[in-house]
Amino acid sequence: MLGIKTAALPASLRRTNQRTVISLLLRMGCASRADLAKAAGISQPTAGKITAELLEMGVLQSAEFPDGNEGASGHGGASRRLGRPGQLLRLDAERPRFLAIELGVMQTRVAALPVAIRSADEWAHEFSTPATAEAWVAGLREVAAAISHRGLWGVLISVPGIVDEAKDRVIFSPNLHWLESAPLAQLVKGVWDLPVALVQEIRALALGHLASEPVREDFFLADFGQGVGGAVVIDGQLYPQPTPLSGEFGHTPVPGNLRPCGCGATGCLETLVSRRGLLQSFGVAQGRRPGAAPEHRSRDGEQAETTGQTEGWAQMPAWKRLLRSRRATRRGAVAGRDAGHGRQSHLWWA
Ligand SMILES: [Zn+2]
Hints:
This protein is α+β, with helices and mostly antiparallel strands. The chain folds into three domains: 30-65; 98-212, Nucleotidyltransferase, domain 5; 219-290 and 302-338, ATPase, nucleotide binding domain (Nucleotidyltransferase, domain 5, 2-Layer Sandwich), CATH 3.30.420. 33% of the residues lie in helices and 18% in strands. It has helices at 10-28, 33-40, 44-57, 133-144, 184-191, 201-212, 270-273, 275-287, 311-315, 318-338; strands at residues 30-31, 60-65, 86-91, 98-103, 107-113, 125-128, 154-159, 162-164, 169-172, 196-200, 219-224, 228-234, 237-238. The strands form four sheets. The chain has a five-stranded mixed beta sheet with strand order 6-5-4-7-10. Zinc ion binds next to loops.
């Protein structure tokens, strides 16, 4: 190939082939070595060698079906071999390899996960996210007592806010300010002595979506919840962050919007289309319609707010405010549902 001075090093080539095989199995579910060789564009002996290494590492497991008629349909049935024995491979779904920690504004959830992606969103451990780093670590220690270190390869933490993933640092977290001064990776390493990686929560969500639907390789994931954020996936890879602010489109200023935002600025998109923003708009619209103000609560019991309207919003006719808040809510719900995760702002009143 032009521009490459030397042939690819065997180690890097092997790693590339390993990645390819793992990506293919994410998509195919189960496959024979021959199918993998064909799909990856490598020779059968090379495919045999790569899969043998991955089997030894515990990334793959074999799945043998004597009659060749079952099991190959995992995610698309790529490897059926009717009438003769089939020896198939799949990502290991048995042994816990990664510790996933979701550090949410309200709850912290922990699960030990295998290489294969589970279809269900199951978290074995959960506790309320406290207000200090010390209390959070104490919560993790309680969880650690129930999770064996044995066989685990690393810890992945998803965190809210503006995150410098390269430096394992939370720069700004409007709802959990203690994260900004806490050395999270070190704290977790003190509980589980394993490699630790921080991922911004929306980017982690995009990775999850990519893993659960690997055929969609190019998308923008928009998340509407407590806050508003986005992440870009291109060619099946999370778009690297040129700056830690990448994807923070919730803080784009909206002309005419005078609502104060948790980030310290005024008029951010998030103040209109986050759950709180939508509730505020709904409350304002409801307050202006005599006789039509039943109490509405979201799923987590947050009451619709009726205060805090801004000057620009207040000057708008009531019917227009209601229409706008409905449209904004629908957009949020549709975008969330399209993104394939369960965190969309629900239309509990429509
Ligand atoms: Zn903002």
